[in-house]
Amino acid sequence: MKFIDQLQERFGIILASSSPRRKQLLASIGLVFKTIIPNVDEKRITFDNQPQNHCQFLSVVKAMNVYNNLVDLSPKIIIAADTIVVLDNEIINKPEDADEAVYFLKKLSNNRHKVFTGISVLDSTNGRLNCRYASTDVYFRKLSDAEIMDYVSTGSPLDKAGGYGIQDDYGRLFVKKIDGCYNNVVGLPLEVLYEMLQNV
Asked: SS3 for 93?
């Protein structure tokens, strides 16, 4: 893609995330990037009770943490994101353990929830930061206790907001339908990110 090539001629790209899903999504559009994991304790950060503000604020904190610790001062674009699951106005984070993963999945079963991802794009040459978010409605079918236990026993839910990954073998079978961006549920809405990069 010509635009991606031109962007990478101007900037080095940094993904401020440890998420393997975000790495795969960035690579899928031809971006070559370096990964730097931000030193941010997400559990200690609260912004307000509006989920779109919460996830955007966390993405800003992650981007700024990486920016403030850059050693290489050549031009960089820092991409940071934060994804949250919201059910009945309650943010459902990554489960602490298997029991909490089971609890989360039982709450999501036969319900509609929302997935929000906040994205920050920071230009290291001038400190300019752009922040946006995407939202997707996700509808779960009714899950049996056996299905939930089988999925949790894989360990996969433990590093995912809401206790599931839509891209997982099990997770994709739990979802009846979605309204919105699929990649947003995975963890990085590429359409929104692409528009943001075009404005750098």
From this structure: coil
The tokens describing 58, both together, are 């966390």
Unique residue bearing structure tokens 């941010």:
40
* DSSP-assigned letters across all residues of 14-78: EEE---HHHHHHHHHTT--EEE------GGG----S-HHHHHHHHHHHHHHHHHHT----S-EEE
pLDDT in tens, 55-109: 999 999 999 999 999 988 899 999 999 999 999 988 898 899 999 999 999 999 9
Catalytic center residues: 82
> Residue 105 in contact with residue 149, Cβ under 8 Å?
no
CB atoms within 10 A of CB 138: 25
Both structure tokens of 180: 């919105």
Residues 86, 133: contact at Cβ < 8 Å?
no
Instruction: Take residue 6 and report the two structure tokens written for it.
Output: 């031109």
Question: Which residues lie closer than 8 Å to 5 by C-beta, 6 or more apart?
Answer: 30
Q: What is the pTM of this model?
A: 0.92
Q: Which domains does the chain have, with CATH numbers?
A: 2-198 (3.90.950.10)
**Rounded CA separation 59/80 (Å):** 5
* Contact indicator for 67, 122 with CB cutoff of 8 Å: yes
C-beta atoms surrounding 79 within 10 Å? 25
